[in-house]
Amino acid sequence: MNPNLLSDEDLRNYQKRGYLHLESFVEAATLADLQRAAAEFVEVSRGLETSNKMLDLEPSHTSGNPRIRRLNSPVDNHETFRNFALEGPAAALACSILGGPVRYHHSKLNFKWSGGGEEIKWHQDIQFWPHTDFSPLTIGVYLADVDDVMGPMGVLPSSHQGPLYDQYLDSGEWGGAMNPRDVAELDMNEIVWLTGPAGSVTVHNCCMIHGSVPNNSPNPRPLLLQTYSAVQSYPIAHIGANGVTGPLSGTVIGGTSDQKITIEGRQIAGAPDWSRAGAPTIFGSQQETD
Questions:
Q1: Which of 143, 175, 178 is nearest to 162 (CA)?
Q2: Which domain does 117 fall in, by range?
Q3: Shortest CA distance to 234 belongs to which of 205, 203, 259?
Q4: What is the DSSP letter of 196?
Q5: Cβ(212)–Cβ(69) below 8 Å
Q6: For the domain that residue 201 is a member of, what is the CATH number?
Q7: Among 54, 78, 103, 131, which is least packed by CB within 10 angstroms?
Q8: Is 103 within the bounds of a domain?
């Protein structure tokens, strides 16, 4: 992984503002591979009448007029997405921003279909999948040219340093978005809309307030998203999406993990990750070998 992928100014801007906007970051050949992979799932969707675990469809979806909201976990469903996120440009960018190595968490592809593709209300990500710190970030790649009418992502600069909002409804049910009363207190004139040609990249911190309006253009606005944290950051089980992120979640990229974590100022040198191989017994671990 190239640790010098970004300039010092880029890194300072990310720390201060909580986001980066990198136009035409992804090379043409890589972008074309991602576009072809995305198109394969559009064809798959034609054989579906309702959503399944892989594809989330709009209610008006038909075979002749496919309308996909989201491809869940593209990294686990296609080699092209897997290579891009775990070995390619997205992985390198995450390592550069976080000082690598990093820990992969999850991925998704939001299509935001043409002619009114659904808005994403103002929200913060960390409440969906809390970690042991606030290092997690999400790297997005526009797979098509995106202008102002296509529902580009909007971010509120430096909001990652502010309050973490309750995203439950007044009924007590999970709403996944900020309460309108809280949104009314934001200065919406400060929102930055991240447009750009296909291959442009967005990066936002897990505490950043962000969202998007409906896509009122005649073209879909596919945005490929992948989330990473610093290697010493761990998702907290049994809260939100943690634990249902796919079999590759937790993959360490750009190095190895020393399994150290700090809680209440005390550092723990934790045991190895046994989630895939299975845990040994304490008796076997304590036997010395020559």
A1: 178
A2: 8-285
A3: 259
A4: B
A5: no
A6: 2.60.120.620
A7: 54
A8: yes
